[in-house]
Description:
By secondary structure, chain A is an all-alpha fold. Chain A is 80% helix and 0% strand. Chain A has ten helices and no strands.
Amino acid sequence: MVRDRIFYGIFAFGIIFISSSLLLGSLSLGEDLRITKDFGLASIYLFSIILAIFFGSQSINRELNDRTYHLVILRPVSSAQFILGKFVGLLFGIGLSALIMQLLYLAVVGLQHGGFDLISFYQFFLLIFEVGVVLSLSLLLSVIGTQLSATILSILLIFIGHSLEMIKHAADKGGLIAKGIGNILYYFLPNLEKFNLRNSISYGVRPQPNLIFLALIYGVAFSVILLSLCHLAVKKHHD
Amino acid sequence: MTKVKTYLLVSIFLCLAALLIVAQYLFDSDKARAGFTDPIVPRAEIIRYIDLGLHNAAADLAWLGAIQYYGGRITPHYDSLDDYFILSTELDPHFIHPYTFGTLILPTIGQLDKGVALARIGFDNNPDDWLIPYYLASASHIYLNDRASAAQYFDIAAGKKDSPEGVKKLAASYGANGSMRSKTIAIWEQIYNETNDEIAKERAKNNIIHLEIMALLDAAAAKYKDRQGYYPKVPNELVSARIIKTVPIDPLGFTYQFDSDGKAMIK
């Protein structure tokens, strides 16, 4: 990942975007700090997710297509270790870039006389878990399909994942079938809103620890399930 | 040969650059002739489905859009301005600026009803904020000529935790001058009799007492002038002159002084 120029391109865009929130804030008629916080947190999220989708959908897929996976498997490395290694490596790389963006965000907020935005670290923590879910989703989809289909499906599932509560709410108003479909989607697709505290954090509202704990359990459980499915898919591909 | 090639490439590059400038100029002049079309502002329900949970950032974009639209001054009607405010505040109901800015600006462009409606929504969504009732009071006073609502909203603004001292003074002195005082007392009496809200009732009672104290001090200052030939500066002089027994305690917490015409005013 760190040898890929695209990583640095996306990362640089993230850095520029967070810095530009200073300029956008100055256009806001006195809401500078709010704009800086909202756009700063949004930028860290968007660019981290773009990195997760991009590298998640190409990493294992490329190894399988180039047949380098078979060379790795010849060594004393199991397919499970191979997938876990890919996942942890990518998560660490994206986490590091998110941390750098987070530090820049803190500097920009400090420049706007917003002090040290300690609460934003809650969001950073949850972001890593959301990236984990998205990454494992992209890895699985890239093994099942192609790199392009994995990218498109991952993007779609991220949009759905942030709208699940609204979808369920709309389905609950419908008939029995709509309600059933709404419930299936709600419980089986990743509900990414569980990792979203941005709308309250920009007001300085401290999140409830039990909600964070539940979100972490949710994130770990979903990632483990998706990576297990990915493992099965890779084994099937190898056989 | 290489030199010729370089010159040729530079010439082609310059021609293309000139072409770009001409195309841009023609595009702009055509656009100006075509006139201005108001932007279509999407509904918050749609944006919520596609903003990846970044509702506040989307609300900020709508707010920036409203500023650009209003500040651009490219339309005489500003038909979409209210839509921007609604979008911004529906995405983030606690975003105070669009409510107050809308309440301030919309009446000036002939959209008084929309401005007042926006402020009322903001007031319902942010019961602890002092700015929205303050702007609502101002709009009621300036545009609606509704002094009862203005007095009530000024008082609500003054009663909020973070309201500045200036707002508290304004609320206490609103309608407190001689000719307006009896009307304002009547307004507060009406509020006192009609409301079921204990806090509003208490505030109305305090305001009535506050205004009655001011009337009492005005009358006492007039008596003082009859005796001394000049007006007092502070209420303690009235006590010294035995016109009143003690300086009345204001239920809103203010102290008084007198202006050069002997009228009681908040210190």
